């Protein structure tokens, strides 16, 4: 029942609203594909999709891949170091508070990072005010605030030690153990986390909204921010719903590609 109420019913309503000039206070008018046709010549939608593809790519390279290898190398260290890293990964669970803190770190006048650069004698950077740096600045906090790193560590701790001992007896090197023992064992978790990462990154809203407001010069303006503006600034709910369906289709395409080429079990 919950699946119908919170899953299929909203999708059904969206499919109806997207083809209407929808209003809360006035009668709705059926306008066919006009809401979708509007975005064909709209430059903002192309900018916003370009931004989220760039954001998702940076996240997968920096935030998704790096914690996997950090977790693997941590398992070779002392238990005390593993506990410290798990605490550091677990503390920033309040993502919005973390985003606000990082926004102040990037502050040009009073921020921590420019303070460090001044102390070291390096030129200051504009950080969030620089079109070339703004998107990277949004991605970097994820390296610290990436809670799923705990999942990788927990999965690695469940790999039987006998597998590594057998590989050692066979003369396998450290990297051969990672390639033939560790990665195949955590592949299902990597596949699942990659899927969630793709879905989440393409729907990013809170970080650019709080840290940059979509700027500078639309350099961090995401699709969901555009959707939000259409719905709650322009009050065009039908058009916003049409954009949400376009985003849904784009996400589904990436999900299908991911499921086809990166399976939990490569033998299937």
How is this structure best summarized?
The chain has 268 residues and is mostly helical. It has helices at 2-17, 34-37, 43-74, 79-90, 95-105, 112-120, 134-139, 141-144, 149-157, 161-169, 174-202, 206-211, 223-233, 237-261, and strands at 20-21, 29-30.
Which key features would you list for this structure?
268 residues; mainly alpha; MetI-like fold; two-stranded antiparallel sheet
Write up this protein.
The mean pLDDT is about 85. The protein has one domain (about 40-160, about 185-260): MetI-like (MetI-like fold). It has helices spanning about 1-15, 35, 45-75, 80-90, 95-105, 110-120, 135-140, 140-145, 150-155, 160-170, 175-200, 205-210, 225-235, 235-260; strands spanning about 20, 30. The chain has a two-stranded antiparallel sheet. By secondary structure, the chain is mostly helical.
CATH class: Mainly Alpha
What is the number of independent domains? 1
> What gap, in angstroms, lies between the N and C termini?
32 Å
CATH architecture: Orthogonal Bundle
| Count of helical stretches | 14
Percent helix, as a range, is 55-70%
Class derived from helix and strand content: mainly alpha
Helices and strands in order, then pairings?
Blueprint: H1 2-17, E1 20-21, E2 29-30, H2 34-37, H3 43-74, H4 79-90, H5 95-105, H6 112-120, H7 134-139, H8 141-144, H9 149-157, H10 161-169, H11 174-202, H12 206-211, H13 223-233, H14 237-261
Antiparallel strand pairs: 1-2
Helix pairs in contact: 3-9, 3-11, 9-11, 11-14, 13-14
């Amino acid at each position: 029942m919950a699946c119908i109420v919170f899953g299929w019913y909203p999708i059904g309503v969206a499919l109806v609203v997207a083809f209407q000039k929808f209003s809360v206070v006035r009668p709705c008018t059926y306008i066919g594909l006009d809401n979708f046709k509007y975005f064909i010549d709209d430059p903002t939608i192309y900018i916003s999709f370009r931004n989220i593809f760039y954001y998702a790519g940076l996240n997968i390279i920096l935030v998704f891949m790096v914690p996997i290898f950090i977790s693997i190398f941590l398992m070779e260290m002392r238990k005390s170091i593993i506990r410290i890293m798990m605490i550091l990964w677990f503390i920033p669970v309040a993502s919005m508070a973390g985003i606000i803190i990082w926004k102040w770190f990037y502050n040009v006048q009073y921020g921590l990072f420019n303070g460090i650069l001044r102390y070291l004698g390096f030129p200051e950077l504009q950080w969030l005010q620089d079109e070339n740096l703004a998107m990277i600045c949004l991605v970097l906090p994820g390296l610290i605030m990436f809670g799923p790193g705990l999942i990788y560590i927990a999965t690695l701790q469940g790999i039987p030690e006998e597998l590594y001992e057998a590989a050692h007896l066979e003369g396998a090197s450290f990297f051969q153990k990672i390639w033939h023992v560790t990665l195949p064992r955590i592949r299902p978790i990597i596949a699942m986390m990659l899927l969630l990462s793709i879905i989440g990154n393409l729907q990013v809203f809170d970080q650019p909204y709080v840290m940059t407001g979509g700027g500078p010069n639309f350099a961090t303006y995401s699709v969901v921010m555009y959707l939000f503006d259409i719905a709650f600034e322009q009050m065009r709910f039908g058009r916003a719903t049409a954009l949400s369906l376009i985003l849904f289709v784009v996400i589904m395409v990436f999900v299908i590609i991911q499921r086809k080429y990166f399976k939990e079990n490569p033998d299937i």
